[in-house]
Each structure stands twice: as C-alpha cells, then as structure tokens.
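Box S1 | Example of a co-folding query
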Amino acid sequence: MTALTALPAWQSMLAHAGRLRDMDMRAAFASDADRAERFSAEDCGILLDYSKNRLDDAALAAVFELARATKVEARRDAMLSGAHINSTEDRAVLHTALRAPRTASIKVDGVDVVPEVHAVLDRMCAFAGRVRSGEWRGYDGRAITDVVNIGIGGSDLGPYMACEALQDYAAPNLRMHFVSTVDGWQLTTTLAKLDPATTLFIVASKTFTTQETLTNATAAREWLLAKAPDASAVAKHFVAVSTNAEAVARFGIDLANMFGFWNWVGGRYSLWSAIGLPILIYLGEDNFRALLAGAHAMDQHFARTPLERNLPVIMALLGVWYINGMGARTHLVSPYNQPLHRLPAYLQQLDMESNGKSVRLDGSHVDYHTGAVIWGEPGINGQHAYYQLLHQGTELIPIDFIAAVDNPKSSLKHQRILLANFLAQTEALMRGKRPNEVRDELSAQGLAGEALEALLPHKVFEGNRPTNTLLLDRLDPTIFGALIALYEHKVFVQGTIWGVNSYDQWGVELGKQLARTIESELTSIQPITTHDASTNRLLERARKALVARSNS
Ligand code: F6P
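Box S1 (continued) | Returned holo structure for 6-O-phosphono-beta-D-fructofuranose
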C-alpha cells in the first residue's frame, strides 16, 4: 500500500464512493431544494454546476479532506512561488508568471522573472503590431497576409485552439495556418494556397530539436527561397519562438527575429509565452493581454479561494472521485460552442501528457489509477454520434459540458436550440427514463402486451450519469483565458493528489529513439532483422514502397 492509499481520507473517499455508486440523483434533487445552488461555484465569468454528480455533503467533505491530506495547498504555494516542483528535470513550474501583471515579483532561483516576461511580451506586441498594420513587409514590399505556425504538441495545440476559439476577435486581413505533422501532405497543401512574398512563418519549438518541426521549417524555407530573389528574404519571412537560441541561430534564423521563453515553461503550458505569438498576431495586443488577464484572474482564484469554492480544486476532486472511487477510465469534454472545437485535443495533451504517469515522485509504482483518457468533440455533433453510449452504454463516463450563454454570432433561434440541447443532455443523463415511465409512454402510443414488454427494456435509460456544467458568460479572450487556466490547475491538483510529476514527459522518448533507428534502416539496403518479426516485416514493406517511389 502506498502512502496515498493508506491515508484515512483515501479510504473514506472509497467508502463514500461505494455507498453512492448507485445513488439516485433524481431523488437527491427532489429531496433537496438547495442542491443545485450548494453544488455550484462561480468566478471569472464561469459558473460550475456540479450538482449532477453522484455526490452528497459527506462525500464532498471526504474528498476535500483528501485534498488537505495530500497537501494540495502547500504544493500549490510552492509552485506559485517558483520552487523546483518538476523534480525529475529540476525545474520550476511557472506558467503562472507568464500572465502575472508587470507589478508582480516572482523569483526563480533568486531572480525575478516578471521583468523578463514583460520585456518579451512587449517585443512580441511591437512585432505583432507591425505585422497587423502592414508595416512589416515581405521581400517584394507587400504586407503579410498569411501566417503559418510550424510547431507540434504544445507548440501547436494551444495557439491553434486559441486562434480558433477567439476568431471573432481576429484581424480580418490575416489568415492563420497551423502545420504540425510530418506527413508532408499538410505542409504541401498549406503552401499550395500561399504566396511566399506575403507569408510569414513562425517556427515554434521549445527545444528547437523536434524532428517534425525542423523538417517542416527546412522545407518551408526551401519553398520561400525557390521564389525569393535571395537569402535575405529569410529574415523577412521567418521568426522563431524557442528557449534554444543556439539551435535557432544554427537553423539560420536571425536572433533579432527570435522570441524566447524559459525552461520553467512546460510545452503544454506555453500558450501564454512567446508560443502565443500567432494568437497575438491574429487577435491583437489588447485581446492577447485580456487572455493573459483572464488566466491571471483564475490563478488568483486558485491561489486564494478556500478549497470548497475553488473551481479547479472541485473539478480535480470530482475527477479523482470517479477515476479512483468509481472506476471511470475516460473523461469526455463536450464544448457546445463550435469555435471551441480544438479544446478537447488541447486538453488531451494538457491532461494526458501531464498525468499519464504510473510512477510517483519518489520513484515508487502507483497502486491506483491516475490520468483518465480525455476525449471529445463539439457536443452537438457528439449527440448524433457517440452519445448513445453515454446514455445507455456500460461505461461510466464523467462529462464536462461547456457553453457560453451569450453567443452574438449565432442567431437567437440557433442559440435557443443549442442551449436547449446542451441543457437537455445533462438533464437526460441525470434523470434517465425508468421502466414505469417507458411503459406509460408506450401505452399512450397504443402499444400493449408482449409488443410493449419486448420494446420496453430498449427504451429504458438508467440515468445517474455524472456531468459538470460549465456555463461561460461569453466566449471572449478573458473568460477563455480563465477557462484554460482552470483546466491547467485542475491537472495540477490531480497530479498532486496522485503524487506524480505532472511536468515531465519521459514517456514520449522511447518512440522518438526507435523512429531514428528505423528512419536510417528505411534508407539502408541491408536485410532488416534487428526488430521483432512484426516490425521487421512492416519495415520491409514500407522500405519497398519508398524505394519504388524513389525509382519512379
Ligand atoms: O514529444 C512531446 C513534446 O516534447 C511535447 O511535450 C512538446 O509540447 C512537443 O513535443 C513539442 O516540443 P517542442 O516545442 O520542443 O518542439
């Protein structure tokens, strides 16, 4: 038994979870007029209603006790003060410093990082302003019309998601493109639509060693130079965002065109840093600063609000409750605003790369489940696809329903229908439909006897399916910033409870190493015998296809 599972608070959570596994949420609402109000919390333009969960006051008290017993507050304070809580890499974890106001002071190893953060931010704003106004010119003197962000993982998902989410606030004269994959199809089809003289590339890579990104950036540079009169065009069309100035210089990007950040910013927590440059160019300085301010407001909420009303803490505890108490293995994110369509993909990296761990900080193996599989799509599409399984399948899948109440670009009629569906789903998942209700309904339709009894079980909904509702006042930069910071802190709290390091990602390394070996084997002519039989055969097949293509 690890220290965590031996905790009385852990045992108490498990006991309550056993007691409430088959809880009747309908009855709980019927007998408690204040349930919705009591099990709701609100700040930063976000209302979290978590009343449609298998919970009561005693169970909630037990999970908050678990947060206290695992010292969530002390570790939070350590993180916010710049302590090296990323122990396997001996680094601070300070994405919160990226959105701290100019007047703040946050020290990493004795050095106040806030002035550096704002110095880079000011440079980014000045550069973005020049691109947006048309003052920044391409090699033939024309203004930039298209910006291509070349990056992957945290150097793609956050900026892409934010540009999509906040597109209503964007500059009308700029088009954004995101190239992440080393399937060259993506770069080729993107470039086919563009004019090199009016295209700006942002090469975004924290390490500047990522193979996919460097391969795409090299190809993009070749594409530019094939049209540009000379190599001086690179300085007008390429900027880099990285922590690795040496590698940026080696690649051939002038360091005057580089925007830096720091090793205390994790890739999946970096959209607030220079990695956010595409967001800043697309949305403009005021909107980008509003995004940072919204995230900062959530940081303040997280740092100062008692656990019982603390939005990220509540969401994290609910996750632990279902994963560890009730055996949930996945968690669905269901945004109803279409511009949030990249949110689930972004949260997959944020959550799964952070808490997809099975070793504790002290190196011991966990004896409990950690991060769930995060998945999702815009909810209204999900309704016509996989919601069947949510309503009547055998899996327990907790869900975050997210929608903005105010949605000016959607007609009143559309918005009414959208919100009606949004609200109906959480109610249906909670209430279900009982056999007696199905019987009455079928009888009213004229069905009776054997025919009715045969159909009845197919039309029963068990209900009691857990959901959180996150109601945003509107989808603007400030509230969106707060929403993302909310999820960041949720992930932090869960990682703290599970005792894992949420800020490293060693698990991505093995595949990268093997890919390097296999890539060289794909160009060799030696028979391939060094792998398992399956990989050897597949490799031979792939090699044949590559050889055939190079001979054609
Ligand atoms: O391979 C995973 C990863 O290291 C992520 O953590 C990171 O966001 C992504 O690759 C991209 O890394 P970089 O920004 O250094 O290119």
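Residues 152-155, 205-207, 210, 213, 267-268, 353, 505, 508 surround 6-O-phosphono-beta-D-fructofuranose (CB under 6 Å). The longest strand covers residues 399-406.
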